[in-house]
């Protein structure tokens, strides 16, 4: 992978870890997830007029992606309510690239080189190692995390293909971001009522705007990278977000890090190096 692609994907990983920390720190994870989705859409609006429309063939992918993103944000909130971030985040983010690496040859006809596959598997192993440090985790948290890993793999495929045929990965990303918050807030209002939703938005709008901007920028960088490199390797490299999440957990949340976190960090770094050399 070219160095500029690697650096941009790593920056996107930092942004991804940041907005996940915002959801984890929030008092109402479902509404905070919806706010972040909405913040991404608001951040996208000013740029739409300056970008070409995605090709017509990409719009079915945008529609499918919106439904999958709705499921993703719902599962993120549910998983963080059910289990510790040390268990949930590694399972969600670590299993998804494993699924992609295992199936990309069949679905996308992308055959990874031996070194690229080794780097992908090494990063995944490092991410999954973090699950070993979790001391509080329920079967429900595990099931929700694994379900979301399947959703992540699915929308990665959908958006990877959609971005490639759209003609402009940035335009695809911005248009794709508009529908999920509509679905999320419609669901929230139906379940919680308008008053409760509006009250939360008034108190936490800044959280959604900051997290949403980071979310859409992170994913846009990943989709752009998928137009330059195999989807499986980009998906794996993006999971280095767990390294940034480790730093955030220690410096912001003051969590105590076990030896497994540091072991995982070393393994992930090695995987990134292997991908660079692939």
TrEMBL record:
Main location: membrane
Residues in EamA domain copies: 142-274
Keyword flag Lipid metabolism: yes
Transmembrane segment boundaries: 6-23, 35-53, 59-80, 87-108, 114-134, 141-158, 170-189, 209-226, 232-252, 259-277
InterPro entries: EamA_dom, EmrE-like, Small_drug/metabolite_transptr
Superkingdom: Bacteria
Localization: Cell membrane
Topological category with respect to the lipid bilayer: Multi-pass membrane protein
Keywords: Cell inner membrane, Cell membrane, Lipid A biosynthesis, Lipid biosynthesis, Lipid metabolism, Lipopolysaccharide biosynthesis, Membrane, Transmembrane, Transmembrane helix
Pfam families: EamA (PF00892)
Protein name in UniProt: EamA family transporter
């Amino acid at each position: 992978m070219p160095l500029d692609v690697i650096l941009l994907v790593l920056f996107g990983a930092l942004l991804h870890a940041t907005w996940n920390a915002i959801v984890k720190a929030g008092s109402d994870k479902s509404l905070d997830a919806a706010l972040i989705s909405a913040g991404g859409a608001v951040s996208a609006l000013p740029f739409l007029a300056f970008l070409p429309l995605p090709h017509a063939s990409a719009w079915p992918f945008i529609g499918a992606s919106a439904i999958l993103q709705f499921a993703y944000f719902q599962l993120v909130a549910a998983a963080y309510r059910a289990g510790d971030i040390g268990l949930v985040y590694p399972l969600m983010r670590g299993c998804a690239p494993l699924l992609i690496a295992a199936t990309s040859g069949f679905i996308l006809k992308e055959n990874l080189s031996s070194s690229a596959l080794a780097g992908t598997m090494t990063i995944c192993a490092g991410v999954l190692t973090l699950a070993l440090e979790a001391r509080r985790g329920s079967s429900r948290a595990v099931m929700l995390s694994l379900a979301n890993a399947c959703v992540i793999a699915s929308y990665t495929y959908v958006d990877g293909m959609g971005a490639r045929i759209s003609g402009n990965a940035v335009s695809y990303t911005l248009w794709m971001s508009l529908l999920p918050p509509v679905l999320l807030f419609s669901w929230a209002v139906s379940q919680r009522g308008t008053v409760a939703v509006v009250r939360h938005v008034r108190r936490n709008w800044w959280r959604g705007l900051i997290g949403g901007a980071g979310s859409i920028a992170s994913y846009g960088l990943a989709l752009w990278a998928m137009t330059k490199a195999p989807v499986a390797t980009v998906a794996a490299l993006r999971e280095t977000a767990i390294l940034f999440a480790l730093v955030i957990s220690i410096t912001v949340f003051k969590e105590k890090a076990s030896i497994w976190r540091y072991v995982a960090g070393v393994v992930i770094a090695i995987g990134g190096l292997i991908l660079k050399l692939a």
